[in-house]
Amino acid sequence: MRVVTCAVVALVLAALALVQIASDAFAAPVAAPLSLPRYAPMPFALAVYQALDRAAPSDFVEATLAQYALQRGDVADAKRHAVRLAPSSTRDELLGQIALRRGDRGLALTYFLAAPDIGELQGEAVRLARTDPVRAYAFERSVRDLLARLQTHPDAVAEADWIMGRIAQRASARMPGARLAWLTRAREDDLAAATMAPFSEKYLLAIASAELRLGDRRAARRWYRRLRSVDPSAQLH
Asked: Is 222 part of a structural domain of the chain?
């Protein structure tokens, strides 16, 4: 009986070791130079994960294979694995990336909003701002409202306010007839960011600069003094 138990334990340990080596291989692209994952054989890792996928499929295995397929540019294989995932932010992010690879930006954004994938959403706002700041501002506001409803991303909400301020500032330069309205909106957004994150040098600098652009030097000096209390070396531009 002891021999059988020892044999089973040995097999389990060997299987776990094989899975660990395979996992290390998939982590190789982000592993430190000269670390073990850099030398793990990818063909072996792929064979192990494909065997796991057939014998005991799990979300982790499906997600790993989907990500690997995306890295190879095999969108069809990536989708085959992604759709097997249970509903989750990982599934939405993968499907969003797959939609992007297929050129369907609208569908991709739907998935990124569902995830939510903040990096992709903010990137879309910045992309839009280059050609259509008004549309970009509306999009970023929808992202900001989503983050506020989630109530789990206070820093991300402040960052969204700050991004809206930058977009509003860009709009003020693009539309001279509405310059004052957009500059005022930028100040409101920068104020919201600085209020939510009162010790952020970036947001304090933004609101001080916004007041200066609107000609309110007294308010600008007040915010600048607060900025200097956080960072004595700060300079108002």
From this structure: yes
**CATH number of the domain to which 131 belongs:** 1.25.40.10
Decide: pTM greater than 0.85: no
Q: List, for residues 4-28, the tens digit of each pLDDT value.
A: 454 433 333 333 444 554 555 555 5
In a domain, 91, yes or no: no
Q: Is 30 exposed, middle or buried (0-12, 13-18, 19+ CB in 10 A)?
A: exposed
Count of domains for the chain: 1
Give dist(CA 87, CA 81) in Å, integer: 13
Q: What's the mean pLDDT in 138-164?
A: 90
State the residue range of the domain holding 230. Answer: 116-237
Asked if 97 and 108 touch (Cβ cutoff 8 Å), the reply is yes
Please check whether residue 237 lies inside any domain of the structure. Answer: yes
Residue 131 lies in a domain: yes
Residue 175 φ/ψ, nearest 5 degrees:
-125, 85
| Nearest Cα to Cα of residue 161 among 173, 174, 176, 143 | 143
- Average pLDDT in the 128-147 region? 94
